[in-house]
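Support reply, case 0932

Customer input (verbatim):
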Amino acid sequence: MTEATRPAVRPARPHFSSGPCAKRPGWSPQNLNDACVGRSHRSKEGKAKLKLAIDKTRAILGVPEDYKIGIVPASDTGAVEMALWSLLGARGVDMLAWESFGAGWVTDVMKQLKLDGARKLEAGYGELPDLAQVNFDNDVVFTWNGTTSGVRVPNGDWIPDGRAGLTFCDATSAAFAQDLPWAKLDVTTFSWQKVMGGEAAHGMLILSPRAVERLESYTPPWPLPKIFRLTKGGKLIDGVFKGETINTPSMLCVEDYLDALQWAEGLGGLPALQARADGNLAVIAEFVAKTDWIDFLCADEANRSNTSVCLKVVDPWFSALDAEAQAAAAKKIASLLGEEDIALDIGAYRDAPPGLRIWAGATIEKSDLEALMPWLDWAYGEVRRSQAEAA
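Our regenerated output:
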């Protein structure tokens, strides 16, 4: 590779973090002036804001009317844990993992809940497990989009309509950017701070009628903390899915989510959000295709994420380094771009292979990614040159 010239054009916004993700274009704290702060979230006005967030979520994502949508504590993690602890144990469970967060759910089910009949189907970073091996007589837990690996399931065709078990889908970096086939999903979770660029600490829990039936017919044998309880007297606590949250939400964060939803509506809803993410992925794909030192971590184009895009260095020089030196070199590329205020927080996830992770969701402007690409060449060239001089 030849030494890259320092680019002249800079991204207007350097925010390419994979979570919390960039705010929507044009965002300002002044957009939150109508927040219901200093008021009870149980007031008429507070509950109306929370219910509006649920209703707009349903409309934009196309969630069926007979599915329940609730705002729950502790981001996507809280929503997933609530579902696992409240619903699992009625039958066996297949746990799918191909990146860090999926591996975390495996740990919770197999080492904390210690469920009998739990089965693990794994794949390395950049790959998917063999989906044909999933047993749908069991419950099935999986991430739709692997945020730390850049690998997503290509569609829902592998999930049968006549399944006996429930499907649990962690969709936190997929919702609002990828097609979610609701008929295939019984429990779906995501957080505001991913594709919509909202603030953290609030999760969304979406339940199919089959999931509600499980909740009302099955009581897990372990104690449930108050923050996880979705039923009372064997019946669903329906208020949770009408804006009556289990604990106190931040009404400032609620207003921020409403602002993002209104922005999405103005763009044209889900198709427009998906088109923006797809267009952003295309910018990165064009750069990768013409650049010999970098490639996608995910080899199969059909399975590549259009939000959390994970890249690996494939230059023979880099491959010849030992693991510690590879990690240091990749970290230096990311830190150089951060020091220049070109791209913030784009290092690979700590458990992932060394490389870069660039958020390409709908809140990112295509022009900023186009400006960023030459800087990747520059930063890589700088790191390689400094390594050569030190040798």
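We compared this against your earlier run and they match. Two observations from our side: The mean pLDDT is 96. The first helix runs from residue 44 to 61. Please reopen the case if you see a mismatch on your end.
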